Amino acid sequence: MTLILVLGNRNDWCFLCEFETHVERASQSLQAFSPINILSRLPNIGGNLGYGRQEDAHEFMRFAIDTMQSICLDDFGGEKAVEPSSQETTLIQHIFGGHLQSQVICTKCNNVSNQYENMMDLTVEIHGDASSLEECLDQFTVKEWLHGENMYKCDGCNDYVKAWKRLTVKRAPNILTIALKRFQSGRFGKLNKRVMFPETLDLSPYMSEAGDGTDLYKLYAVVVHVDMLNASFFGHYICYTKDFRGNWYRIDDCKVDISLVA
């Protein structure tokens, strides 16, 4: 809260401050209202976002998180002036930040190479017969066989070798956002197959190391793209969200209804 109060003294427009104001108003209001102060400043959040245009909800979320992270770093000279380890101590990183681990094992000398990447969410594809979120995560973390033209240059034996590669979650975030990729590469239509997901997700099978049982996530909200003519690049978004009592609501613009889907 101290950080946000300090940022509230900025002379220029601050998305993080505006978002705080929006959340406070939403928590106190019993009526729908337009977030016009944010909508009118969309280019400040993402360069290609525009008011009144068809936009992707996941893309907006990524722009919004990145913008809030940048605001947290601005008072310390910006991203280039702050050490990477210090960048991970911001409020936004504590909420959404985690780490992915890419591990490659050489089949010639058994050398193990680990590389780490910061993550703010997970984007998983829907391949083949996958019909549940867990199966999509299985595909996301499945071992990949590097061979042929895709052989691996091993630092251990200094040679191009066959190797196993696997992507896992090294450190899970406090708030986990998962986007199902329903775009079909090279095709016009949207991948509309049914994908089931649980209300409680155990992330431990997809972690780099065995966890302590704390990698359990409770479902809080689902954003759904309602397409038109099976198109992935335009349509309408609705949201299902849960209150603190465990009741689910369907939010469609200014219309909010109790949802019977639990």
Automatic annotation (TrEMBL):
SUPFAM superfamilies (UniProt xref): Cysteine proteinases
Source domain of life: Eukaryota
GO CC list: cytosol; nucleus
Domain USP: 1-262
Keywords: Hydrolase
UniProt entry tagged with the keyword Hydrolase: yes
Pfam families xrefs: UCH (PF00443)
A molecular-function term among this protein's GO annotations: cysteine-type deubiquitinase activity
GO BP annotation list: protein deubiquitination
Xref: PANTHER family: UBIQUITIN CARBOXYL-TERMINAL HYDROLASE, UBIQUITIN CARBOXYL-TERMINAL HYDROLASE 19
Name under which the protein is recorded: Ubiquitin carboxyl-terminal hydrolase 18
Organism annotation: Morella rubra
